[in-house]
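Q: I'm writing up a methods section and want to include an example of the input and output format. Could you take the sequence below and give the corresponding predicted structure tokens, formatted cleanly so I can copy it straight into the document?
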Amino acid sequence: MRHQDKVVVITGAGQGMGRAMAQRFAAEGARVAALDLQEAAARDVAAQLGDRALGLGCDVADAASVRAAFEAIQQAFGRVDVLVNSAGTGAMDSFPEVPDENWARVIGVNLTGTFLCCREAVRLMQKGSQGGVLINVSSTAIATGEGPAHYCATKAGVVGLTRSIARELAPQGIRANVLVPGPTNTPMMADIPDEWRDQMIAAIPLGRMAEPEDLAGVASFLASDDAAYMTGQNVSVNGGMAFL
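A: Here is the clean output for your methods example:
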């Protein structure tokens, strides 16, 4: 129960990695705010976690939606101790054919969404004296370059954003780290062609994709006092396919 009574906000909590993280933090005693673009999915996760959880619809790419979600969290729980930015999206576009709207959407969710949620969480963390933890999800694509240009660009941007936050806010007791997954068995992977999927698995020394629970365990560690001296770091969970 190392997260007993902490308030943990998780974006993209309606499925995949975010859902596994919500379950892990709740099992370790946290009060969880599950955010997802699909409000019904967020509420379903919260209902499974019990009366100490809150499910909210939130478009992380929209500042007003993010602000409203964090206002609801403050009203329900009074503070935020941990934020995990797990919400993400992608599109299978070749570089010369990337539509403007796809570029804007991927940037909006993966990078702008991370910024907006971090900003609101930090504002609440600064109102207390307990500090806080930010965990932003990137991708092994930042090292390998594998993946569409807009996806790789946003995930590299998340690293730069997190390092800036970590350096600026460390004196206030707010830590920020990057969780860097490799290929993970989530619904997003269902859109990837089988041939590309097989090639990715073949390149992983441990011989399999990550399961969402693999990432949830590392997120729990990063949010805990066991990681109290870690900030501004990339923590890669990729089965050995890349060394960061």
